[in-house]
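Supplementary Text 2. Reproducibility record for the structural model of the 201-residue chain.

All settings were left at their defaults, and a single model was retained for analysis rather than an ensemble. We include the record here because the model underlies the residue-level annotations in Supplementary Table 4.
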Amino acid sequence: MKYEKADLYWAYAISHEKVAKRLVEKGIASQDDVNETLEYLYDNLHMKDIQKLKASPACQEIISTYLKRGFPQNKYISLTDIAREINKESPSYVIQGWLRSRNTLEFLRIWESKNNPEFEEAECNALLEAMKAPSFTVTPKQWIIRTKAIGLVSNRGKNGGTFAHPDIACDFHMWVKPELRLALVEWVRESNNGEIVSKDC
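Retained model, structure tokens:
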């Protein structure tokens, strides 16, 4: 409801801008009068409600953890710890579920192609082909060894587990918590005044 309310506020403001522009073009009002009126309008919009839209805890979690400036990109994040929030006893099963998705492997392929000159594209293709068999499962170790991936790290032992570059950890975190994905989409939409801007990559 809050999002609908904010959209109405901005639609109201934009419609007044268009009317004001026509009044100036027709010589009915001066630009100074129009500017003063619009300034008054914006000052009296319910900005507190609009600002609340950007403060959802889920969105803040994603932004502060993965997207905030200054985050050390060489600091790998434990996917195992994130997975324990979903399955405390078997977090590795959660990670394997994520890797079982063709979309995940395509995402990892794109990341590795951009950041890893040693990435084995042919092995990635072989894994994608093998995934057509329902019983086939890609493990983090298998992905790392076969493709020479650097975005994931898998360690055994007391402090072991699967770790990932922040870009990849962000994708995993949003996969296990869809509410985070939705919060980020809503934040992007609100940051663009209610529109998702599409452009060629």
